[in-house]
Fold this protein.
Amino acid sequence: MTAPAGAFDARTPRLVGSAGKARGGPLLLATAAIHGNEPAGVHALRRVFAALEASRAELRGRFVGLIGNRGALLAGQRFRDSDMNRLWSQRKLAELAAGDPAADTAEQQEQRELLAAIEAELAAAPSDVVHVDLHSTSGDSPPFIVQNGDARSLELAHGLGLPVLHGLHKNLEGTVLEFGTARGFACIVVEGGQNEAESTIEHHESALWLLLHSTGLLKDEPRFELARHRERIARSTSGIPAAVEICLRYAIEPGEQFTMLPGFKSFERVAQGQLLAFGGAGGRREIRSPMGGILVMPRYQGQGQDGFFLARSGARGG
Ligand SMILES: [Zn+2]
């Protein structure tokens, strides 16, 4: 089964679903499609909300799912004017707050609307907030987690049984994680797999069910099949280190023509000196790996400045 075509149109609301009551327990806030070419998280949220409704489950807290970059999702593009996952530093948020909405870029307008929806939830919520941001990658990848290194987020991340990527925030400024960290949330990014793969929707679905349980919103009952979700995650990540640390980001220069060699998969091992991509102004300069290590998130899409990342097994913390 593949994701339904034409699943999004002008009537698609930003709110994918909500369940439970704000004062009953923690708030689990899920965002998806902050990158518009990553629809899998939205499909997963739709499935989980539909299943929750059908089961008439009583949640101990509140669960909310929101679309991030609605306009780009409808257009099937990563973004329209600029990457919406680089707008969440304190400086950019202050700029947005002080700016005239009439002068917003497409993504600033999206961010303004998303923030309003989040703030409305926070106004009613107790202090215990968990934020999960659902993403996917242009190249083949097993599911994994990105986090900021604080103890609670890390505990949440390892509890899901997915490989945990450390140190990405030192290489990227303004991701959604910065927002959650500044506000004192436990926050993780789940990278579910390749953008269009059906298995990516399933990985997100399993991660959401396990989070509903680990945050205390949902009891472990046979009807929720939590064991099946744990097994699915274990199968999809077998042979992958539990933690890897980012050592290097290949930043694509403005005007550079970057082409990754075909066939690389995230978490694949590469050798020092191995040809990874072509770049430079003419797109012919060889880009070789400066180290032996683990390749993460090779770029197989036209947009964005991150060519690829190189990581080492294990985590030095942070
Ligand atoms: Zn993304």
User: Anything to note?
Assistant: The first helix runs from residue 40 to 55. The helical segments are 40-55, 70-75, 90-98, 106-124, 151-159, 176-182, 198-214, 226-236. The pocket of zinc ion is lined by residues 35, 38, 85, 135 (CB under 6 Å). DSSP finds eight helices and 14 strands in the chain.
